[in-house]
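User: I'm designing a mutation panel for Glycosyl transferase family protein 14 and want to avoid disrupting the core. Could you give me a predicted structure to guide residue selection? Please restate the sequence first so the numbering is unambiguous.

Assistant: Good idea. Sequence first, for numbering, then the predicted structure tokens:
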Amino acid sequence: MIYPRESEINIGDLNLLVITPFYRWFIKELIEAQSRYVGEIHILVHHNPLAEISNYVPFGGYFDHLRLYTKQRIVELENVPPNVHIHLISTVYFIPDGRNSQLGEKLAKKFEEHIKENNINFDIIHAHFTYPQGYAAVKLGQKFNAPVIITLHENRPHLYSILKNMKDKAVYTWKNADALIRVNKRDIPIFIQHGANPGRIVHIPNGYNPRKFSYIPREVAREKLQIEKNAKIIFNLARLYPEKGHKYLINAMSLVLKERQDVYCYIGGTGPLKKQLEKQISKLNLRHHIRLLGYLPDNQLNYWMNAADIFVLPSLSEGNPTVMFEALGVGLPFVGTAVGGVPEIIVSEDYGLLCPPADCECLAEKILIALDKKWNREKIRKYAQQFTWKEITKKLSKIYKEVLHQST
């Protein structure tokens, strides 16, 4: 797919080296937006071949975790822009990334060899996440005399885990990057407390791809999905992991249904908690009102977003969830927890309602209020436009120019 370039944010023939744990989801969407305004983009993704074993093991648990990191899961090659080049670099290791104190050095050496062997030219290194990606980026920046920018996507539990398991690596990374970008404002003091230069850390939120969704009349979307046209529909999309708080949503639904019986909750996403959540739904006799949809491709997701009355995300922790911006982007009111950067985006009850994490009663109350409220969906859509990846790219372009200016 070839995109037109726009002079307003064009930074010429700047070449980027991007170090990321995956090329899909929000990273892929961001890079596709950036590709319209820069020269070449080379993506370095490390892959542990041991993850492929999970394709042949029918068990869950740890193997469900490994399946997230197979080649098929970490790289999506559909519609890659012509100036984006993906390098999947295999590295065998046994200790998981977040606890592997040697992995940063190992990847830095692997990446250096690959860069030299393939004659990859770049002006800036942009890494996503602190360790091992950001750490390896800093090492490469020193080796190739290139400025390094790191976007810090970690939620708080992940951040505290890094500080617990390899504080020296994290502090080194934050101190030596030319610029740090945190996806929410509230956590910036944590990074400064642990060595980040206050003058080098800025806040830029995540964003969303408006091309991913298109307007579909609600009645058309519901007919397509075979949903009762007069029902009240709650939609959730998240990995089935503990930090996403699904069990609190299910408990909240049992309270909601005591007040009204026309409410149905649909949950999209996969993960190791599927059987546990199914048991919880069955135990509470909610099978008629809650349905786990599994993986949803984008074309189906578009129908669900347009069919729903509200989007609910009961997370226990977040950095700044992309799915929140996607929901707002189609004018869907957001009900969720005040974690991470969420309250920095849901700044008015015109866009959504918030409650504390792990509070089923409050979540149920907010859901009931939201279902009765008359929302201005056009106002929500217009508000969300400032968070498109195009707008985020404009902000990133300014950071690129600043660090290049400082390095000359």
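For picking mutation sites, this is relevant: The CA atoms of residues 208 and 326 lie 6 Å apart. Confidence is low (pLDDT under 50) at residues 1-9.
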